[in-house]
Design brief:
538 residues, TIM Barrel, 2 domains, 9-stranded parallel beta sheet, 14 helices
């Protein structure tokens, strides 16, 4: 931690010296933006089921030669479908229009060297995919329960197109929201009508599934696992909506008196706040366990509100998710009930009370299980140079503070596409070269096999071919590392179906020759095989 703190101090000192904007004491703004009441509470430890025993330590693996460069970094963007924020641009577009818009967004991510997309498939207990459990989304077709015409499965389309472009696809679900204010008519297909008694209406017009009802937890779990079983996804993602923001109900308490009284009458002893947190805790732990039992390689990620409680760390002020959303995100990170943790740190570096690096450093101090910590950042501040600098500085601070597994998730893809100057600044800066999604060794740390490589010099060009053992698991990607005379190592990333490549053997005015190459296989979880250095001789 001393090294990380030193990096933080240096980064902040540099940024302040460069004349950053004045610190502000404004309240932190969750997504969507709402003013929130400040409260400061002492920590409460909810009663939860015991965590599963840690796996036994694996035998130490034989040393393998690592590649000459570390090229890991998670680079993702959220694609929101609720209220048609990002896709489709409006409800009721034709199948062709929807697909064209989707490909444009995915091409943008590929061309700007991102490696993952977090795609919202369940905005209000509905589906942007073919489901027998919930109706087709209003935000897709303009009528809840109506399938696309001509028919296609949007999620399947997004997955295949993302994978063709070397992108992971994580499905983003809202586990409890039953109806959004922009969702228009509540049809007979809605869970509100299909499962009466599960959902309650809030003052702002939203409907919310009661998180403490066992049927709510069972239904939302069934939805998650239906997707995990039937689709070739890379991750499952929840955001910050657990119990709803109190502003949605005019500041009044969540209307769950019947559920609460049933718990008390059955001998429940927890306080009402601890009982609510306990219900969410059990659900989070359950989802993680069920995903791993079905497909261990599918990652589970959470993106909670960026502040756990005011006062953690000491100078932080703002909304209290622990007491207001009944989300003990710190516990989930401490227990390792997730594979990656993406707190929504939507504030500027020098914003007093909600400083980006200060909050990131605190969350890292709580990452006791060594999971991926990939903060969510707000790129919607505009397209001018100061906002581009803010975004780039946050990416660079994240790299410095979390060097073992850097990564950033961008809220959202909309501003990146809208502001070309912002997107170009990121691409020409920290994302100048593509990167691999960091490996998750607690899920799998078995390195893939090493390919056999052959080369053929053809004048000023060289052909490179590689073969893979027939009994080896299919490679997800390949990395070609190469170095010219007097130069540093460079690399190219290829899809798993690639088996050959032609490149310059002699480059530049000084006629520098290619000196060394090496190819590594990369599996689905980001593990790289052994690097074998091959000297190129004419």
């Amino acid at each position: 931690m001393k090294i990380k703190k030193a990096i933080l101090v240096v980064a902040l000192a540099f940024l302040y010296a460069c004349g950053g904007s004045k610190p502000t004491t404004s309240e932190p703004l969750p997504q969507p933006v709402d003013e929130k009441e400040e409260t400061i509470e002492e920590p409460v430890a909810p009663e939860v089921e015991e965590a599963p025993e840690k796996a036994e330590e694996k035998e130490e693996r034989p040393f393998i030669t690592p590649p000459p460069q570390d090229i890991y970094e998670f680079r993702a963007a959220w694609v929101a479908t609720v209220a048609n924020i990002n896709w489709p641009s409006k409800a009721g577009l034709s199948t062709s229009q929807q697909q064209q818009e989707a490909l444009k967004l995915l091409d943008f991510l590929k061309d700007h060297h991102y490696n993952a997309v977090i795609f919202q498939v369940r905005p209000q207990a509905d589906a942007l995919y073919d489901s027998e459990l919930e109706p087709w989304s209003y935000f897709l077709t303009g009528k809840q329960g109506q399938a696309p015409n001509p028919y296609y499965d949007p999620l399947k389309f997004w997955i295949e197109a993302a994978h063709e472009r070397g992108l992971e696809l994580h499905v983003w679900l809202n586990p409890y929201r039953a109806h959004h204010t922009t969702g228009k008519e509540i049809t007979e297909a809605s869970v509100i009508k299909q499962k009466p008694g599960l959902a309650v209406k809030l003052d702002n017009g939203m409907w919310w599934l009661d998180p403490a009802k066992q049927e709510t937890q069972d239904h939302s779990s069934a939805v998650v696992m239906d997707i995990v079983k039937r689709y070739d996804i890379d991750g499952v993602h929840f955001d910050d909506y657990f119990y709803p923001y109190d502003s949605y109900n005019s500041g009044k308490d969540f209307p769950d008196s019947a559920t609460w009284e049933a718990y008390v009458n059955n001998g429940g002893e927890l306080s009402r706040s601890d009982w609510r947190r306990d219900q969410v805790n059990r659900f989070i732990k359950r989802i993680y366990s069920e995903i791993k039992a079905e497909k261990p390689y599918v990652k589970f990620g959470l993106s909670p509100f960026g502040i756990w409680k005011p006062g953690y760390p000491q100078s932080v002020t703002g909304y209290n998710q622990y007491e207001k959303l009944y989300a003990d995100a710190k516990l989930w990170l401490n227990e390792g009930w997730i594979d990656y943790f993406t707190p929504q740190l939507y504030w500027k570096i020098n914003q007093y009370g909600q400083s980006f690096p200060e909050l990131l450093g605190w969350w890292e101090s709580e990452n006791t299980m060594g999971r991926h910590l990939w903060p969510g950042i707000n790129v919607g501040l505009g397209g001018d140079s100061s906002n581009a600098d803010e975004t780039i500085n946050q990416i660079m601070i994240t790299r410095g503070m979390l060097p073992e597994s850097p990564g950033t998730v961008h809220w959202s893809i909309g501003p990146l596409v809208q502001h070309s100057s912002l997107a170009t600044s990121i691409k020409e800066g920290p994302y100048k070269k593509p990167g691999l999604v960091p490996a998750s060794p607690w899920l799998d740390d078995e390195p893939p096999a090493t390919p056999e490589v052959s080369t053929e010099i053809r004048g000023e060009r060289i052909g490179i071919k590689w073969t893979y053992p027939e009994n080896a698991e299919k490679a997800d990607k390949w990395v070609l590392y190469f170095r010219y005379e007097g130069g540093n190592w460079d690399y190219r990333i290829f899809s798993g179906d690639k088996r050959n490549f032609e490149m310059q053997y002699i480059v530049g005015d000084k006629k520098r020759k290619l000196q060394e190459i090496g190819i590594t296989a990369v599996d689905r979880l980001g593990n790289q095989g052994e690097f074998r250095n091959i000297s190129i001789k004419n």
